[in-house]
């Protein structure tokens, strides 16, 4: 039967799901607005519960109580994600072609190849780079995913139900069915969407669903009017919320994915939106691929036409493709991201998705939930005021006597009063040892009809007083007097008006207000009753709020300093939200409510969202909609939340961030999970993200421009020189050692100025950078060609004879020897000059400042680049150089090389400054 249910669920289309959801909401509206007897009848159940057969029928009709969570990707999909991207596809293709031309053709003596031409080095180099890059990414993301999985435990495991013939039994939550009778008590999680049948002092926290910070009173009373949102019904409790106080009996109305919780959680299982990082990397990839597709055929045909050796031209074209491909890009990108993830892990932060590190740096808008994200998600006593609106310790003392000595369930406000008193006890003698200096004589517990609670206490002198706290209107109804301006006065209409104005002002600021009153010498013990709650003296108010976290104001200030705009998207009401904004220093230029969004088109919302700082009373779908329109406006958007109602918005954002108190579904949706309360880690994430982007774009731009310059030089040399300026293997070796020198880029220093503003991918800047900076190296390549061909090689190889004139002076073996030596010297000279110019340009391009003076590369990068230059400079002087076809260079070559490279650095510096002036930035 379970398989049958699963098949029915998976076969449903999106339209069917929407219709089912509408039907489920109609069921909630009916349940809320109907008498309990009618609800039970419609669900084919009774107060005695369901029997076994009815449970099975219910599951078949309404589904199981299982919520869809994000499906873990299978191993094959994770491996494909780590290894498959445009560049690795090109490299695999090049490796396959090289396998054919360098391994298969020589083995079978095809197309003029002999077994002596067998060479697998190119294939090994390419495959090694791809495997290293992909393996590093796979390992890092697997580690992050495993750490995150350990955090994702479901909300509860069992619940208490009554079934036919079985009273109050514990069953697994998954076994719950529509029509089951459930019993709720303080501390329980609501296991499904239920209609309250009977309740006693029931308060429920549904902040993770709606964003409301204050607990909500739930009753069994039938609702007269249909609510706009099902979560507004006071006789319906929702899966995922928790019982704060009281008890209740309820009937299950919706289960599993059909619950409000399930609807929000199902967004997690859907495919995430393509992020700005993915779009950016893909765009840059295709820019570079287009260059490859243009350059390689050009080189192939020019070489084939001018040299007549089409096989060699094809091989050289392959080496050009390898040279133009930034094959280390996947590895550099992965290393940069992994380094950022490791750095964040030291800040007690789990990075589930490596790409989110760069999105952190690109983020220019952070949308954030309020309750539990910016706030502590707990009630705190902010003010204890006398009638005049002044802080008064007497008000706090009387509140403590009421809350401490009452024997019923201490709600969140009682706990807040006791905590506040204990905090101030050390500095205020009037609050010292109250629990020791007073004894409780009697009490009248809280009930929802009176909406107040009274205790009678006696001090050591024998003085007895009654202390009452409760809702303001109900307290005013039992007070005849008020402590006003230091004396007890009759509660006149003028004083009453002033009291209500003060309370209204506190309510408008989002505070929940209780009044506190007292009366001396009430009825004797044993005769104390509700009738004694009269002729009391009103002494002040207690104002409660869910306060912001200590780090919230500093975190938002830091975001502004780093060019990130914060916008609050909350399900809570606008008054509370405005107060929190004021406390954390967030200016509210404009505020939109969920009801406003309902009447706005996406175009209207896209325009309004730019000018709006706070969105209140939002549904989960509205939160996701705001995030989506901001992204469509061209922003990189982050979303930070902690509740089930934040899951869809997190999924829609470029980067989802969950905080330490987040529910499990929010953690599933998030790319980054903060494990501690300190929100200042956001600054660390932004800085790491921008460092990551800086070092990735450094590699891309410097490699692309350098490779483009080299290939441009090769293209010209192919057309003008009677021989290849560099052999295929030499070119690949040059590229490999240069790429190895670049592996330290993820650890490079980044200028402070670069970290101040958000950084986004711009593929067009890569193309323009290549065109501006690349030809600069070609200028000096051409100079080197001229110097080597017309000056250096004739002097040191052929006794003043140019290459084209060698057949006129030599013949036979001597001619071949001279031609080989000429080419070997030429290729060695350009090989060394290319490495020097390619490597030093790293230091030129990594900063808009003057390198080595105003900005210094990191020690690892400096060490590797110097090592790479040294190794390649030495190679022509070694047996390996001879094997590669190089000749040893005389010392006077370096007399030419040093001023040549110096001039190149000066030209590159001038061009980068001109580029920065023209485009506004270098990187």
UniProtKB/TrEMBL annotation:
<comment type="function">
    <text>Mediates magnesium influx to the cytosol.</text>
</comment>
<feature type="transmembrane region" description="Helical">
    <location>
        <begin position="283"/>
        <end position="302"/>
    </location>
</feature>
<dbReference type="InterPro" id="IPR044492">
    <property type="entry name" value="P_typ_ATPase_HD_dom"/>
</dbReference>
<keyword id="KW-0472">Membrane</keyword>
<keyword id="KW-0460">Magnesium</keyword>
<feature type="transmembrane region" description="Helical">
    <location>
        <begin position="782"/>
        <end position="803"/>
    </location>
</feature>
<protein>
    <recommendedName>
        <fullName>Magnesium-transporting ATPase, P-type 1</fullName>
        <ecNumber>7.2.2.14</ecNumber>
    </recommendedName>
</protein>
<dbReference type="Pfam" id="PF00690">
    <property type="entry name" value="Cation_ATPase_N"/>
</dbReference>
<dbReference type="InterPro" id="IPR023299">
    <property type="entry name" value="ATPase_P-typ_cyto_dom_N"/>
</dbReference>
<dbReference type="InterPro" id="IPR023298">
    <property type="entry name" value="ATPase_P-typ_TM_dom_sf"/>
</dbReference>
<dbReference type="InterPro" id="IPR008250">
    <property type="entry name" value="ATPase_P-typ_transduc_dom_A_sf"/>
</dbReference>
<dbReference type="InterPro" id="IPR036412">
    <property type="entry name" value="HAD-like_sf"/>
</dbReference>
<feature type="transmembrane region" description="Helical">
    <location>
        <begin position="314"/>
        <end position="338"/>
    </location>
</feature>
<dbReference type="GO" id="GO:0015444">
    <property type="term" value="F:P-type magnesium transporter activity"/>
</dbReference>
<feature type="transmembrane region" description="Helical">
    <location>
        <begin position="121"/>
        <end position="139"/>
    </location>
</feature>
<dbReference type="InterPro" id="IPR006068">
    <property type="entry name" value="ATPase_P-typ_cation-transptr_C"/>
</dbReference>
<dbReference type="Pfam" id="PF13246">
    <property type="entry name" value="Cation_ATPase"/>
</dbReference>
<feature type="transmembrane region" description="Helical">
    <location>
        <begin position="857"/>
        <end position="877"/>
    </location>
</feature>
<keyword id="KW-1003">Cell membrane</keyword>
<keyword id="KW-1133">Transmembrane helix</keyword>
<dbReference type="InterPro" id="IPR001757">
    <property type="entry name" value="P_typ_ATPase"/>
</dbReference>
<dbReference type="InterPro" id="IPR059000">
    <property type="entry name" value="ATPase_P-type_domA"/>
</dbReference>
<dbReference type="InterPro" id="IPR018303">
    <property type="entry name" value="ATPase_P-typ_P_site"/>
</dbReference>
<dbReference type="Pfam" id="PF00689">
    <property type="entry name" value="Cation_ATPase_C"/>
</dbReference>
<feature type="transmembrane region" description="Helical">
    <location>
        <begin position="79"/>
        <end position="101"/>
    </location>
</feature>
<dbReference type="InterPro" id="IPR006415">
    <property type="entry name" value="P-type_ATPase_IIIB"/>
</dbReference>
<dbReference type="GO" id="GO:0005886">
    <property type="term" value="C:plasma membrane"/>
</dbReference>
<feature type="transmembrane region" description="Helical">
    <location>
        <begin position="883"/>
        <end position="907"/>
    </location>
</feature>
<comment type="similarity">
    <text>Belongs to the cation transport ATPase (P-type) (TC 3.A.3) family. Type IIIB subfamily.</text>
</comment>
<keyword id="KW-0067">ATP-binding</keyword>
<keyword id="KW-0812">Transmembrane</keyword>
<dbReference type="GO" id="GO:0016887">
    <property type="term" value="F:ATP hydrolysis activity"/>
</dbReference>
<dbReference type="Pfam" id="PF00122">
    <property type="entry name" value="E1-E2_ATPase"/>
</dbReference>
<keyword id="KW-0997">Cell inner membrane</keyword>
<dbReference type="InterPro" id="IPR004014">
    <property type="entry name" value="ATPase_P-typ_cation-transptr_N"/>
</dbReference>
<feature type="domain" description="Cation-transporting P-type ATPase N-terminal">
    <location>
        <begin position="29"/>
        <end position="103"/>
    </location>
</feature>
<keyword id="KW-0547">Nucleotide-binding</keyword>
<feature type="transmembrane region" description="Helical">
    <location>
        <begin position="711"/>
        <end position="738"/>
    </location>
</feature>
<keyword id="KW-0597">Phosphoprotein</keyword>
<dbReference type="InterPro" id="IPR023214">
    <property type="entry name" value="HAD_sf"/>
</dbReference>
<dbReference type="GO" id="GO:0005524">
    <property type="term" value="F:ATP binding"/>
</dbReference>
<keyword id="KW-1278">Translocase</keyword>
């Amino acid at each position: 039967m379970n398989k049958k249910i699963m098949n029915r669920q998976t076969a449903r289309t999106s339209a069917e799901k929407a219709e089912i959801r509408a039907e489920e909401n109609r069921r909630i509206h009916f349940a809320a607005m109907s008498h309990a007897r009618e609800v039970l009848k419609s669900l084919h159940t009774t107060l005695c519960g369901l029997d076994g057969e009815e449970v099975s029928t219910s599951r078949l009709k309404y589904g199981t109580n299982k919520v869809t969570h994000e499906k873990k990707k299978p191993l094959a999909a994770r491996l494909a994600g780590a290894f498959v991207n445009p560049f690795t596809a090109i490299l695999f293709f090049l490796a396959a072609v090289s396998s054919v031309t360098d391994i298969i053709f020589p083995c079978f003596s095809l197309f003029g190849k002999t077994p002596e031409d067998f060479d697998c080095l190119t294939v090994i180099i390419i495959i090694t780079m791809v495997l290293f890059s992909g393996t590093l990414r796979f390992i890092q993301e697997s580690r992050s995913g495993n750490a995150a999985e350990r955090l994702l435990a479901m909300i509860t495991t069992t619940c208490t139900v009554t079934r036919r013939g079985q009273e109050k039994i514990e069953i697994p939550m998954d076994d719950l069915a529509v029509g089951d009778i459930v019993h709720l008590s303080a501390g329980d999680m609501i296991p499904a969407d239920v209609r309250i049948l009977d309740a006693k002092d029931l308060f429920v926290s549904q902040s993770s669903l709606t964003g409301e910070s204050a607990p909500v009173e739930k009753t069994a009373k039938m609702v007269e009017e249909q609510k706009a949102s099902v979560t507004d019904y006071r006789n319906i409790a929702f899966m995922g919320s928790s019982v704060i106080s009281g008890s209740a009996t309820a009937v299950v109305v919706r289960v599993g994915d059909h619950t409000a919780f399930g609807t929000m959680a199902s967004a997690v299982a859907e495919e995430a939106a393509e992020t700005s990082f993915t779009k950016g990397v893909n765009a840059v990839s295709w820019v570079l691929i287009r260059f490859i597709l243009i350059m390689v055929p050009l080189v192939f045909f020019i070489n084939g036409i001018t040299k007549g050796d089409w096989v060699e031209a094809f091989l050289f074209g392959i080496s050009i493709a390898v040279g133009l491909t930034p094959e280390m890009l996947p590895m550099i990108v992965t290393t940069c991201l992994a380094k950022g993830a490791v750095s964040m892990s030291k800040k007690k932060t789990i990075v589930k998705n490596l790409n989110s590190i760069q999105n952190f740096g690109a983020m220019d808008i952070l949308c954030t939930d309020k309750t539990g994200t910016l706030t502590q998600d707990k009630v705190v006593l902010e003010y204890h005021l006398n009638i005049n609106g002044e802080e008064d310790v007497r008000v706090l003392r009387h509140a403590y006597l009421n809350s401490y000595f009452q024997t019923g369930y201490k709600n969140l406000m009682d706990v807040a009063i006791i905590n506040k008193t204990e905090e101030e006890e050390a500095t205020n003698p009037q609050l010292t040892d109250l629990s020791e200096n007073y004894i409780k004589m009697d009490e009248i517990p809280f009930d929802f009809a009176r909406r107040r609670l009274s205790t009678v206490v006696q001090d050591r002198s024998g003085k007895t007083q009654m202390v009452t706290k409760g809702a303001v209107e109900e307290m005013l109804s039992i007070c005849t007097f008020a402590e006003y301006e230091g004396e007890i006065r009759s509660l006149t209409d003028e004083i009453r008006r002033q009291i209500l104005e003060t309370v209204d002002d506190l309510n408008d600021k989002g505070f929940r207000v209780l009044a506190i009153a007292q009366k001396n010498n009430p009825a004797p013990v044993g005769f104390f009753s509700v009738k004694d709650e009269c002729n009391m003296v009103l002494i002040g108010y207690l104002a409660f709020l869910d306060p912001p976290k200590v780090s919230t104001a500093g975190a938002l200030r830091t975001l502004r300093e780093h060019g990130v705009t914060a916008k609050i998207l909350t399900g809570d009401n606008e008054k509370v939200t405005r107060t929190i904004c004021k406390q954390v220093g967030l200016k509210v230029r404009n505020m939109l409510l969920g009801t406003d969004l309902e009447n706005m088109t996406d175009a209207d919302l896209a325009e309004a969202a730019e000018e709006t700082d706070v969105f209140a009373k939002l549904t989960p779908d509205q939160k996701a909609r705001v995030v989506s329109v901001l992204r469509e406006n061209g922003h990189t958007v982050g979303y930070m939340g902690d509740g089930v109602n934040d899951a869809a918005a997190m999924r829609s954002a470029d980067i989802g961030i969950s905080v330490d108190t987040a529910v499990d579904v929010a953690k599933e949706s998030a790319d980054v999970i903060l494990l501690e309360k300190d929100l200042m880690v956001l600054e660390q994430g932004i800085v790491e993200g921008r460092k990551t982007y800086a070092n990735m774009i450094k590699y891309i731009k410097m490699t692309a421009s350098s490779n483009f310059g080299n290939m441009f030089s090769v293209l010209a040399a192919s057309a003008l020189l009677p021989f290849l300026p560099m052999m295929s293997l030499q070119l690949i070796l040059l590229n490999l050692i240069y790429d190895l020198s670049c592996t330290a880029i993820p650890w490079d220093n980044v200028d402070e100025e670069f970290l101040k503003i958000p950084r986004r991918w711009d593929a067009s800047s890569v193309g323009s950078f290549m065109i501006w900076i690349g030809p600069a190296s070609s200028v000096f390549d051409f100079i080197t060609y001229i110097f080597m061909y017309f000056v250096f090689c004739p002097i040191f190889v052929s006794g003043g004879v140019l290459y084209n004139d060698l057949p006129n002076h030599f013949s036979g073996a001597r001619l071949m020897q001279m031609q080989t030596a000429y080419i070997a010297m030429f290729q060695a000279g350009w090989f060394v000059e290319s490495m020097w110019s390619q490597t030093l340009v790293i230091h030129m391009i990594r900063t808009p400042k003057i390198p080595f003076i105003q900005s210094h590369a990191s020690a690892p990068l400096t060490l590797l680049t110097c090592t790479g230059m040294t190794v390649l400079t030495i190679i022509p002087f070694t047996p390996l150089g001879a094997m590669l076809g190089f000749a040893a260079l005389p010392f006077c070559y370096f007399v030419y090389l040093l001023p040549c490279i110096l001039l190149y650095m000066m030209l590159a510096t001038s061009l980068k400054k001109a580029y920065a002036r023209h485009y506004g930035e270098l990187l």
